[in-house]
Amino acid sequence: MALKDNNFEVIIDGYGLFPYSEFNLTFIPQLFYNETIMLPIGIQSTQLHLNYWKEDNFNNFKKFLISKETNIKTYKEILNKVSNNLMQ
């Protein structure tokens, strides 16, 4: 209720393989703290703490982004995948 009262609509959380809606909020999975892990199915997000990164972290992340370019989706594309289908 506090999130809705403060105009939050989308939450990145740590559950599931696909975005889903509950309590009039959209939840996007965030399963790993390591930004270079990608599961072969589902949609996932990650968190980045850039204040702790060194130049090697940026370089490795750039390589990761280039290697996974076809797998990376926009925010809008992800929101279009929201489903409450139990199979997902």
Write the layout of secondary structure elements.
Blueprint: H1 2-5, E1 10-13, E2 20-22, E3 25-29, H2 55-67, H3 75-79
Parallel strand pairs: 1-3
Antiparallel strand pairs: 2-3
What does this structure look like?
This protein has 88 residues and is of the alpha+beta class. The chain has one domain (2-79). Helix content is 25%, strand content 14%. The protein has helices spanning 2-5, 55-67, 75-79, and strands spanning 10-13, 20-22, 25-29. A three-stranded mixed beta sheet has the order 1-3-2, with no helix packed on it. Strand 2 and strand 3 (25-29) form a beta hairpin.
What labels describe this entry?
88 residues, alpha+beta, three-stranded mixed sheet
